[in-house]
Structure prediction request, 298 residues.
Amino acid sequence: MGLSIGGVTINLELYIRGFYKGSESVFDMGAQDLHVNLGQFKELLSSAGITDYDESAFSVLAEFPQKRMGTEVFYKLLGFKKYLCSDVIDRWNSVKIDLNYPITGDSLLGKYDLVTDYGNNEHVFNIAEAYRTMHRLCKAQGIMIIQQQVYGGNGYYNFTPHYFEDMAIANEYEILFSLYEFNNHFIPIGSNIMDIADKQVALKMCYVFRKVKDQDFVFPCQGFITSKLGTGIYKIQYLPERNVRSYARIIENFEKDLSWVEILAIFMILVKKMKSVTNWSEAFGILKGKLRKKLKKQ
Prediction:
């Protein structure tokens, strides 16, 4: 577990763009190392315009990977004042937390501006609880960074974008970044990288969320998020900051917000879910009503 070139790069990107402005506290899920050598690290900082710092604080990286250092000093370089990490062993002054179970007590909950998962949570069998804990540790308006394996990892799980996209919808997160990481390069989620990637090289994905609301964690259900939000249709909503996106629920404004193509696409989804001619007829009646309203507005 650790911040490789990709993890350091994501943090520097967030720092440069001002997402860390005013942030003071960070919590690493898992006792993380810096997985870069000194030359790589200095080059990354230089590319981000960071040149005025105490290089001796990172001297251990000159002997990486034989010797390791934690991430606390790096975060302090980015302006964070308070650092904590969790693990099942005592490492980097970690607090001992078994992420299979709900975190007890409220001394840590809602206290952190940044909460990270750099290849940690997939080692926990009860992974849903681990992400619930991540949500609970994070402040409202705080940021969560997740780097996980599509394949080539060593944990219990590999991931698809659906896992994190549905988590974002269910919990109303803003998505600051969503990227595949391949050989220290980033490619947007949704590209055809899976068709061309060398399967011998590990493929990661990275999501950066902003927790917009101070609310309980909602466990999503694949497909429509029906358990608490009701049946609805969602579309990507781009927010003012570059690359930031969220999901807007649009079923209530069906005739106003949807294009003709979207209306027909959603009708086809509804049809596939219908089991009887009566329901088909009902769905078609709903569609006709929506189209009639849309025509009146034009």
